[in-house]
Amino acid sequence: MANPRNEAALAELKARFAETDTVVLTEYRGLTVAQTTELRKALGFDVQYSVAKNTLVKIAANEAGIEGLDDLLTGPTAVAFIKGEAVDTAKVLKKFGEENKAFVVKGGYMDGNALTAEQVNAIAELDNRETTLAKLAGAMKGSLAKAAGLFNAPASQVARLAVALQDKKDA
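^ Large ribosomal subunit protein uL10, sequence as received from the core. Prediction below:
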């Protein structure tokens, strides 16, 4: 690999793998430049979507300690390097794939595990972090209100009992 362009591309891929939390591999065969540009815009700033040679991706991934991608690196491959919320990116990729039949999610890598295409699509079905935290906070708030009601119930029962006893003595 004496080609300086390959060496520069490999160095860039290594840096991206080092900075990335999650990686999704896709097949872009049949997409126009306009469609690819549209996808990059939809992915946003937390995702770098790049076309790279499979051999360079294999080398960079292996040197970064990422295993399990070799079987996915066949045919034309583009890599989505995700720095932020993987769920949001998976949703964008899934929606784009539904709108553009030529686009295929091959699989990926997240939290030390290789992912199949089905697993990436399953991630797209999850709620993102903010929504999950909001649901959790709502559930906790409801539970706290119930607990407060339970703690106040004996005190109000004692007060009603005292009033009933007083009424009985007065009668």
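The mean pLDDT is 81.
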